[in-house]
Design brief:
single chain, about 80 residues, mainly alpha, 434 Repressor (Amino-terminal Domain), about 65% helix
Length: about 80
């Protein structure tokens, strides 16, 4: 159960406390890619999710749901921008 003071869970929110180097080393991705995840400019690809879930010590299905939810929110924002 989330408290009222807790920010919504996002990939960038979970990764913010780690360095891009640590995330990159844990997932086998570049620092640039890891930085995009940490800043919310990008989302992890499916192939990176198992290693990222292990790094974050969370269930893979939980991380997958989080990425999917975040991706659908991003897609909706883009659709709104294109329509205006």
């Amino acid at each position: 159960m989330h408290s009222h003071h807790e920010a919504p869970r996002t990939v960038s929110g979970l990764l913010r406390k780690y360095t891009s180097i640590a995330v990159a080393e844990a997932t086998g991705r570049s620092r640039t890619v890891a930085h995009s995840w940490r800043t919310g400019r990008g989302l992890p690809d499916v192939a990176s999710l198992p290693r990222l879930a292990a790094f974050l010590e969370m269930e893979l299905d939980e991380l997958t749901r989080l990425v999917a939810d975040e991706s659908s929110r991003t897609d909706r924002r883009l659709e709104v921008r294109r329509a205006s």
